[in-house]
Amino acid sequence: MTLERFLTKAVTSWMNEEGPNSEIVLSTRIRLARNSRHHTFPTLFTDEEAEEVLTKTKEAMKGQFDSLELLQMKDLQDLQKRVLVEKHLISPNLAEDTAGAAVFLSENEDISIMVNEEDHLRIQCLYPGLQLKEALKKANELDDKIEEKFDYAFDEEAGYLTTCPTNVGTGLRASVMMHLPGLMMTNQMNRIIPAIGQFGLVVRGIYGEGSEALGNIFQISNQTTLGKAEEDIVEDLLRVVHQIIAQEKSAREALVQTSGIQLEDRVFRSYGVLRYSRIIESKEAAKCLSDVRLGIDLGYIKDVPRTILNELMILTQPGFLQQYAGEGLKPFERDLRRASLIRERLEMDDSQLKGGTDL
Protein backbone atom coordinates (compact mmCIF):
# COMPACT_ATOMS: atom_id res chain seq x y z
CA MET A 1 0.00 0.00 0.00
CA THR A 2 1.40 3.42 -0.96
CA LEU A 3 0.41 7.04 -0.75
CA GLU A 4 -0.03 7.08 -4.53
CA ARG A 5 -2.72 4.43 -4.26
CA PHE A 6 -4.85 6.66 -2.00
CA LEU A 7 -4.38 9.66 -4.30
CA THR A 8 -5.00 8.17 -7.74
CA LYS A 9 -8.08 6.01 -7.26
CA ALA A 10 -11.30 8.05 -7.09
CA VAL A 11 -13.58 5.24 -6.03
CA THR A 12 -12.56 2.60 -3.52
CA SER A 13 -14.02 -0.89 -3.21
CA TRP A 14 -16.55 0.04 -0.52
CA MET A 15 -17.94 2.83 -2.75
CA ASN A 16 -18.46 0.40 -5.63
CA GLU A 17 -20.68 -1.83 -3.52
CA GLU A 18 -24.46 -1.59 -3.45
CA GLY A 19 -25.73 -1.01 0.09
CA PRO A 20 -29.29 -0.87 1.45
CA ASN A 21 -31.30 2.03 -0.03
CA SER A 22 -28.32 2.95 -2.20
CA GLU A 23 -30.56 4.55 -4.83
CA ILE A 24 -30.91 7.44 -2.34
CA VAL A 25 -28.35 6.90 0.44
CA LEU A 26 -24.85 7.09 -1.03
CA SER A 27 -22.93 6.29 2.16
CA THR A 28 -23.00 5.96 5.92
CA ARG A 29 -20.38 7.30 8.31
CA ILE A 30 -19.78 6.75 12.01
CA ARG A 31 -17.16 8.90 13.75
CA LEU A 32 -16.03 8.64 17.36
CA ALA A 33 -14.13 11.50 19.04
CA ARG A 34 -11.64 10.48 21.73
CA ASN A 35 -8.88 12.20 23.74
CA SER A 36 -5.99 11.16 25.93
CA ARG A 37 -6.47 11.57 29.65
CA HIS A 38 -2.81 12.50 30.08
CA HIS A 39 -2.41 15.23 27.45
CA THR A 40 -3.73 18.74 26.89
CA PHE A 41 -6.50 18.84 24.30
CA PRO A 42 -5.50 19.89 20.76
CA THR A 43 -6.67 23.51 20.93
CA LEU A 44 -4.16 24.22 23.70
CA PHE A 45 -1.43 21.58 23.48
CA THR A 46 2.16 22.27 22.50
CA ASP A 47 3.89 20.81 19.46
CA GLU A 48 5.80 18.49 21.79
CA GLU A 49 2.57 17.18 23.31
CA ALA A 50 1.10 16.67 19.83
CA GLU A 51 4.07 14.51 18.87
CA GLU A 52 3.71 12.58 22.13
CA VAL A 53 0.06 11.84 21.29
CA LEU A 54 1.07 10.59 17.83
CA THR A 55 3.77 8.37 19.36
CA LYS A 56 1.26 7.02 21.90
CA THR A 57 -1.22 6.32 19.10
CA LYS A 58 1.36 4.43 17.08
CA GLU A 59 2.08 2.26 20.12
CA ALA A 60 -1.63 1.60 20.65
CA MET A 61 -2.07 0.64 17.00
CA LYS A 62 0.95 -1.69 16.85
CA GLY A 63 0.10 -5.35 16.52
CA GLN A 64 -3.66 -4.90 16.10
CA PHE A 65 -3.75 -2.41 13.24
CA ASP A 66 -0.61 -3.19 11.26
CA SER A 67 -2.65 -3.36 8.04
CA LEU A 68 -3.48 0.34 8.29
CA GLU A 69 -1.25 2.82 6.45
CA LEU A 70 0.07 5.81 8.42
CA LEU A 71 0.20 9.12 6.56
CA GLN A 72 1.65 12.13 8.37
CA MET A 73 0.48 15.53 7.20
CA LYS A 74 3.97 17.01 7.41
CA ASP A 75 5.08 14.56 4.69
CA LEU A 76 2.29 15.49 2.25
CA GLN A 77 2.03 18.33 -0.23
CA ASP A 78 -0.96 20.68 -0.03
CA LEU A 79 -2.46 19.17 -3.17
CA GLN A 80 -2.16 15.64 -1.79
CA LYS A 81 -3.94 16.66 1.40
CA ARG A 82 -6.67 18.32 -0.63
CA VAL A 83 -7.31 15.04 -2.49
CA LEU A 84 -7.68 13.19 0.82
CA VAL A 85 -10.20 15.83 1.96
CA GLU A 86 -12.17 15.45 -1.28
CA LYS A 87 -12.32 11.70 -0.70
CA HIS A 88 -13.63 12.30 2.86
CA LEU A 89 -10.61 10.45 4.29
CA ILE A 90 -9.42 13.43 6.34
CA SER A 91 -11.04 16.67 7.45
CA PRO A 92 -10.07 20.16 6.26
CA ASN A 93 -8.97 20.79 9.85
CA LEU A 94 -6.45 17.92 9.78
CA ALA A 95 -5.11 19.15 6.44
CA GLU A 96 -3.96 22.39 8.08
CA ASP A 97 -0.77 20.51 8.99
CA THR A 98 -0.55 21.12 12.73
CA ALA A 99 2.14 19.30 14.69
CA GLY A 100 1.66 15.55 14.96
CA ALA A 101 -1.27 15.54 12.53
CA ALA A 102 -1.69 12.14 10.86
CA VAL A 103 -4.18 9.56 9.63
CA PHE A 104 -4.29 5.77 9.63
CA LEU A 105 -6.11 4.40 6.55
CA SER A 106 -7.30 0.94 5.60
CA GLU A 107 -6.57 -0.34 2.11
CA ASN A 108 -10.15 0.03 0.88
CA GLU A 109 -10.53 3.30 2.80
CA ASP A 110 -13.52 2.23 4.88
CA ILE A 111 -11.51 3.01 8.04
CA SER A 112 -9.87 6.36 8.75
CA ILE A 113 -8.37 7.17 12.15
CA MET A 114 -7.30 10.81 12.37
CA VAL A 115 -4.72 11.88 14.95
CA ASN A 116 -4.50 15.41 16.39
CA GLU A 117 -7.44 16.89 14.56
CA GLU A 118 -9.94 18.78 16.76
CA ASP A 119 -9.57 15.85 19.16
CA HIS A 120 -6.59 13.55 19.73
CA LEU A 121 -8.35 10.71 17.90
CA ARG A 122 -11.24 10.57 15.49
CA ILE A 123 -12.20 7.03 14.52
CA GLN A 124 -14.20 6.95 11.29
CA CYS A 125 -15.92 4.04 9.53
CA LEU A 126 -17.55 4.36 6.09
CA TYR A 127 -20.11 2.00 4.55
CA PRO A 128 -22.08 2.04 1.28
CA GLY A 129 -25.81 2.73 1.48
CA LEU A 130 -27.71 2.91 4.76
CA GLN A 131 -25.75 0.80 7.27
CA LEU A 132 -25.62 2.84 10.46
CA LYS A 133 -25.80 -0.11 12.85
CA GLU A 134 -23.10 -2.03 10.98
CA ALA A 135 -20.80 1.01 10.89
CA LEU A 136 -21.36 1.66 14.61
CA LYS A 137 -20.50 -1.95 15.46
CA LYS A 138 -17.25 -1.71 13.48
CA ALA A 139 -16.31 1.65 15.01
CA ASN A 140 -16.91 0.32 18.53
CA GLU A 141 -14.74 -2.71 17.82
CA LEU A 142 -11.89 -0.42 16.74
CA ASP A 143 -12.50 1.85 19.72
CA ASP A 144 -12.33 -1.03 22.20
CA LYS A 145 -9.04 -2.28 20.76
CA ILE A 146 -7.44 1.17 20.89
CA GLU A 147 -8.68 1.79 24.44
CA GLU A 148 -6.76 -1.28 25.64
CA LYS A 149 -3.54 0.73 25.18
CA PHE A 150 -4.80 4.34 25.09
CA ASP A 151 -6.15 5.87 28.31
CA TYR A 152 -9.18 7.94 27.28
CA ALA A 153 -10.37 11.14 28.94
CA PHE A 154 -13.65 9.96 30.47
CA ASP A 155 -15.99 11.25 33.16
CA GLU A 156 -18.47 8.96 34.88
CA GLU A 157 -21.27 11.53 34.60
CA ALA A 158 -20.43 13.42 31.41
CA GLY A 159 -18.98 10.56 29.36
CA TYR A 160 -16.12 10.98 26.87
CA LEU A 161 -14.55 14.44 27.11
CA THR A 162 -13.97 16.29 23.86
CA THR A 163 -12.58 19.60 22.66
CA CYS A 164 -15.98 20.82 21.44
CA PRO A 165 -18.76 20.68 24.08
CA THR A 166 -21.25 19.47 21.46
CA ASN A 167 -19.35 16.17 21.21
CA VAL A 168 -19.14 15.47 24.95
CA GLY A 169 -20.89 12.28 26.01
CA THR A 170 -20.72 9.50 23.47
CA GLY A 171 -18.39 11.48 21.18
CA LEU A 172 -20.47 9.98 18.37
CA ARG A 173 -21.24 11.64 15.07
CA ALA A 174 -23.44 9.45 12.89
CA SER A 175 -24.22 10.68 9.39
CA VAL A 176 -25.64 9.59 6.07
CA MET A 177 -24.98 11.13 2.68
CA MET A 178 -28.19 11.33 0.64
CA HIS A 179 -28.98 12.18 -2.97
CA LEU A 180 -32.26 14.14 -2.87
CA PRO A 181 -33.02 15.58 -6.34
CA GLY A 182 -36.75 14.87 -6.08
CA LEU A 183 -37.16 16.91 -2.91
CA MET A 184 -35.09 19.71 -4.38
CA MET A 185 -37.02 19.81 -7.69
CA THR A 186 -40.34 19.87 -5.82
CA ASN A 187 -39.10 22.62 -3.47
CA GLN A 188 -39.62 20.56 -0.33
CA MET A 189 -36.14 20.74 1.20
CA ASN A 190 -36.67 24.23 2.64
CA ARG A 191 -39.55 22.76 4.66
CA ILE A 192 -37.82 19.53 5.59
CA ILE A 193 -34.52 20.99 6.86
CA PRO A 194 -36.08 22.95 9.80
CA ALA A 195 -38.24 19.94 10.68
CA ILE A 196 -35.16 17.72 10.84
CA GLY A 197 -33.60 20.18 13.29
CA GLN A 198 -36.44 19.56 15.74
CA PHE A 199 -35.25 15.97 16.09
CA GLY A 200 -31.75 17.05 17.16
CA LEU A 201 -30.31 16.46 13.70
CA VAL A 202 -28.54 18.78 11.30
CA VAL A 203 -28.35 18.99 7.50
CA ARG A 204 -25.09 19.98 5.82
CA GLY A 205 -23.53 19.99 2.36
CA ILE A 206 -21.36 17.35 0.77
CA TYR A 207 -18.19 18.31 2.69
CA GLY A 208 -19.79 18.96 6.05
CA GLU A 209 -20.28 22.15 8.02
CA GLY A 210 -20.33 25.31 5.90
CA SER A 211 -20.24 23.47 2.57
CA GLU A 212 -22.74 23.53 -0.28
CA ALA A 213 -25.16 20.75 -1.20
CA LEU A 214 -23.50 20.21 -4.58
CA GLY A 215 -25.34 17.84 -6.87
CA ASN A 216 -28.34 17.69 -4.51
CA ILE A 217 -26.22 15.73 -2.02
CA PHE A 218 -26.85 16.36 1.68
CA GLN A 219 -25.29 15.04 4.88
CA ILE A 220 -27.72 14.40 7.72
CA SER A 221 -26.23 13.77 11.15
CA ASN A 222 -26.92 13.95 14.87
CA GLN A 223 -26.19 17.05 16.93
CA THR A 224 -26.83 15.58 20.37
CA THR A 225 -24.16 13.36 21.93
CA LEU A 226 -24.77 13.95 25.65
CA GLY A 227 -27.41 12.10 27.65
CA LYS A 228 -28.24 9.56 24.96
CA ALA A 229 -26.85 6.10 24.30
CA GLU A 230 -25.07 5.46 21.00
CA GLU A 231 -27.76 3.00 19.94
CA ASP A 232 -30.52 5.55 20.62
CA ILE A 233 -28.72 8.22 18.59
CA VAL A 234 -28.45 5.82 15.65
CA GLU A 235 -32.09 4.70 15.98
CA ASP A 236 -33.32 8.31 15.98
CA LEU A 237 -31.28 9.10 12.88
CA LEU A 238 -32.51 5.93 11.16
CA ARG A 239 -36.15 6.84 11.76
CA VAL A 240 -35.72 10.26 10.22
CA VAL A 241 -33.65 8.96 7.30
CA HIS A 242 -36.30 6.36 6.47
CA GLN A 243 -38.92 9.12 6.42
CA ILE A 244 -36.77 11.20 4.08
CA ILE A 245 -36.23 8.18 1.82
CA ALA A 246 -40.00 7.71 1.62
CA GLN A 247 -40.55 11.39 0.83
CA GLU A 248 -37.82 11.38 -1.84
CA LYS A 249 -39.38 8.33 -3.50
CA SER A 250 -42.78 10.00 -3.40
CA ALA A 251 -41.35 13.20 -4.91
CA ARG A 252 -39.72 11.23 -7.73
CA GLU A 253 -42.98 9.39 -8.47
CA ALA A 254 -44.87 12.70 -8.55
CA LEU A 255 -42.32 14.20 -10.96
CA VAL A 256 -42.64 11.21 -13.30
CA GLN A 257 -46.43 11.40 -13.25
CA THR A 258 -46.80 15.16 -13.64
CA SER A 259 -43.70 16.15 -15.60
CA GLY A 260 -42.43 12.89 -17.07
CA ILE A 261 -41.34 14.12 -20.49
CA GLN A 262 -39.83 17.32 -19.08
CA LEU A 263 -37.92 15.29 -16.49
CA GLU A 264 -36.67 12.85 -19.12
CA ASP A 265 -35.62 15.77 -21.30
CA ARG A 266 -33.71 17.32 -18.38
CA VAL A 267 -31.93 14.04 -17.68
CA PHE A 268 -30.82 13.53 -21.28
CA ARG A 269 -29.81 17.16 -21.74
CA SER A 270 -27.54 16.81 -18.72
CA TYR A 271 -26.23 13.53 -20.07
CA GLY A 272 -25.46 15.26 -23.35
CA VAL A 273 -23.62 18.06 -21.56
CA LEU A 274 -21.45 15.53 -19.74
CA ARG A 275 -20.82 13.46 -22.86
CA TYR A 276 -19.87 16.30 -25.19
CA SER A 277 -18.80 19.40 -23.23
CA ARG A 278 -15.24 20.63 -23.71
CA ILE A 279 -15.42 23.04 -20.76
CA ILE A 280 -17.48 22.55 -17.59
CA GLU A 281 -17.39 24.22 -14.17
CA SER A 282 -17.71 22.22 -10.98
CA LYS A 283 -21.24 23.38 -10.08
CA GLU A 284 -22.58 22.62 -13.55
CA ALA A 285 -20.89 19.22 -13.51
CA ALA A 286 -22.43 18.43 -10.09
CA LYS A 287 -25.89 19.45 -11.30
CA CYS A 288 -25.62 17.34 -14.46
CA LEU A 289 -24.24 14.35 -12.57
CA SER A 290 -27.20 14.55 -10.17
CA ASP A 291 -29.63 14.59 -13.10
CA VAL A 292 -27.92 11.61 -14.74
CA ARG A 293 -27.89 9.63 -11.48
CA LEU A 294 -31.63 10.31 -11.15
CA GLY A 295 -32.11 9.20 -14.75
CA ILE A 296 -30.29 5.95 -13.97
CA ASP A 297 -32.43 5.35 -10.88
CA LEU A 298 -35.65 5.98 -12.86
CA GLY A 299 -34.58 3.73 -15.70
CA TYR A 300 -34.29 6.49 -18.32
CA ILE A 301 -30.58 5.78 -18.81
CA LYS A 302 -29.51 2.19 -19.23
CA ASP A 303 -26.13 0.51 -18.86
CA VAL A 304 -24.42 3.32 -16.92
CA PRO A 305 -23.39 2.30 -13.38
CA ARG A 306 -25.15 3.97 -10.48
CA THR A 307 -21.81 4.49 -8.73
CA ILE A 308 -20.79 6.93 -11.45
CA LEU A 309 -22.09 9.82 -9.31
CA ASN A 310 -19.88 8.79 -6.37
CA GLU A 311 -16.88 8.45 -8.65
CA LEU A 312 -17.21 11.57 -10.78
CA MET A 313 -18.19 13.81 -7.87
CA ILE A 314 -14.74 13.05 -6.45
CA LEU A 315 -12.81 12.78 -9.70
CA THR A 316 -13.95 16.25 -10.85
CA GLN A 317 -12.99 18.12 -7.67
CA PRO A 318 -10.13 20.66 -8.00
CA GLY A 319 -7.59 18.71 -5.97
CA PHE A 320 -8.18 15.42 -7.73
CA LEU A 321 -8.09 17.07 -11.15
CA GLN A 322 -4.69 18.57 -10.43
CA GLN A 323 -3.38 15.34 -8.92
CA TYR A 324 -4.52 13.50 -12.06
CA ALA A 325 -2.85 16.13 -14.25
CA GLY A 326 0.36 15.97 -12.25
CA GLU A 327 0.54 19.74 -11.91
CA GLY A 328 -1.25 22.78 -10.57
CA LEU A 329 -4.04 24.04 -12.81
CA LYS A 330 -5.68 27.44 -13.17
CA PRO A 331 -9.52 27.53 -12.93
CA PHE A 332 -10.01 27.53 -16.73
CA GLU A 333 -7.55 24.65 -17.09
CA ARG A 334 -9.45 22.71 -14.42
CA ASP A 335 -12.70 23.24 -16.33
CA LEU A 336 -11.07 21.84 -19.47
CA ARG A 337 -9.63 18.86 -17.60
CA ARG A 338 -12.94 18.20 -15.81
CA ALA A 339 -14.84 17.98 -19.10
CA SER A 340 -12.19 15.72 -20.58
CA LEU A 341 -12.22 13.34 -17.62
CA ILE A 342 -16.00 13.06 -17.65
CA ARG A 343 -16.02 12.28 -21.37
CA GLU A 344 -13.28 9.67 -20.92
CA ARG A 345 -15.19 8.01 -18.05
CA LEU A 346 -18.46 7.81 -19.98
CA GLU A 347 -16.70 6.59 -23.13
CA MET A 348 -15.02 3.89 -21.03
CA ASP A 349 -18.45 2.58 -20.05
CA ASP A 350 -19.50 2.49 -23.71
CA SER A 351 -16.33 0.60 -24.64
CA GLN A 352 -16.89 -2.01 -21.96
CA LEU A 353 -20.54 -2.50 -22.91
CA LYS A 354 -19.65 -3.00 -26.58
CA GLY A 355 -16.96 -5.52 -25.73
CA GLY A 356 -14.10 -3.11 -26.35
CA THR A 357 -10.82 -3.30 -24.47
CA ASP A 358 -9.55 0.26 -24.77
CA LEU A 359 -9.84 1.96 -21.38
From TrEMBL:
SUPFAM superfamilies: Glutamine synthetase/guanido kinase (SSF55931). ATP binds at residues 27-31, 88, 122, 173-177, 204-209. GO terms for biological process: phosphocreatine biosynthetic process. It catalyses: L-arginyl-[protein] + ATP = N(omega)-phospho-L-arginyl-[protein] + ADP + H(+). It comes from the Bacteria. Its EC number is 2.7.14.1. InterPro entries: Arg_Kinase, ATP-guanido_PTrfase, ATP-guanido_PTrfase_AS, ATP-guanido_PTrfase_cat, Gln_synth/guanido_kin_cat_dom. Keywords: Allosteric enzyme, ATP-binding, Kinase, Nucleotide-binding, Transferase. A motif (RDXXRA motif of the pArg binding pocket involved in allosteric regulation) lies at residues 334-339. GO terms for cellular component: extracellular space. GO terms for molecular function: ATP binding; creatine kinase activity; protein arginine kinase activity. It holds the Pfam family ATP-gua_Ptrans. Residues 24-251 form the Phosphagen kinase C-terminal domain. Appears to be allosterically activated by the binding of pArg-containing polypeptides to the pArg-binding pocket localized in the C-terminal domain of McsB. The keyword Phosphoprotein does not apply. HAMAP family: Prot_Arg_kinase (MF_00602). NCBIfam families: PRK01059.1-4 (NF002194), PRK01059.1-5 (NF002195). Belongs to the ATP:guanido phosphotransferase family. Catalyzes the specific phosphorylation of arginine residues in proteins. This is Protein-arginine kinase. It comes from Jeotgalibacillus proteolyticus. The lineage of its organism: Bacteria, Bacillati, Bacillota, Bacilli, Bacillales. The gene is mcsB.
